[in-house]
Amino acid sequence: MSDVSEHDAPTEDRRRSRGDASRARVLEHAAAIASADGLEGLTIGRLAGEAGVAKSNIQVLFGDKQSLQLATIDWVLQLVEAFNAPALAAATTPFERVRVMVDGWFAFVERRMLPGGCFMNGVSSEFRARPGPVRDRLAERRRAKRRRYVEALAAARDAGEIWPAIDVENLAFELLSYQALANVAFAIGDEAEFQRARSISARRLDEAKAG
Amino acid sequence: MSDVSEHDAPTEDRRRSRGDASRARVLEHAAAIASADGLEGLTIGRLAGEAGVAKSNIQVLFGDKQSLQLATIDWVLQLVEAFNAPALAAATTPFERVRVMVDGWFAFVERRMLPGGCFMNGVSSEFRARPGPVRDRLAERRRAKRRRYVEALAAARDAGEIWPAIDVENLAFELLSYQALANVAFAIGDEAEFQRARSISARRLDEAKAG
Question: What ranges does the record give for the region Disordered, renumbered to this chain (chains A, B) (predicted)?
């Protein structure tokens, strides 16, 4: 390691970029494992086997199991954002953005971008009896998602695209409820209930639309 | 075992009743473990330790782990039914029955009748990547619950207590959605969201009420 120094930037950059690529490859596998079997099923040994990486390298990249779990949560949320980004960028009005967010959720689950469907809904239940940093991170990410929904709906209301009388907090809650049920339905193989969640979500938005 | 025969009914009855009491005691512990840590966390070894029963006895009473998981699912649903039974029996109209079903769900979770909240919502996610008899049983029980909600709402509509235009399938879906989100909120310690689910459920029923 003695050749790494401030004066040796190109080498360090290359090294960092190799490290980022390794991290990304490991996190892809971590997300798939945790999506299907939960964050507790994400052991360093299993991950090493599936990603084809030495256990010691995973420990160097991520530290302990809990740090790995937290990194996996953050990675999955980046994945979800990246999935929705093109359609969100193409949306021309605030209401259009809301539709894209809602449609994007169903598409993400249905296309099995992760084997276990919606990661956040799936793993939140897992931590019901496990207070600590992982549960705190999941709670924080859930609140952030709710805030994004409330803000997007408020922007649509302020733009006159949805009725001023609509309670955006409640509407956000309802849309997220349908996703929570849809995710369990998907988990358990109930396709009809998943599709009902999607069509009721679309209808709620149609009803809220002004004009 | 040679003393057990058709001609020896009192002894057999006593024996069976002792067996039932052991089963019940073990299942109480099984429900608590699975509610908090999932049905996969329900190992025969751990259960033996917590219930203070020999592993071999649990194997005699329940067979293998999968049979124990199925027995635990059925036990929990009996527990939920017993919890709601007095209020349901006291309900004087079909609409009143619906209210009792909805209020009873929130009360069951809030009073921590099981440490992990709503068992069905909690463990369904756990089996998202595990097809088989346990997932099938969970799916079947979820469908049965939905049917009970639809039938109770239809009875209230037929009695003229809710508006005839109400789509009872959709209303049942919505009420169950709020529970799905409330259960994740409860799991993760988000009390405000849990209470929002309860008040939105009550409001939905108020809006559906005829007259």
Answer: 1-22
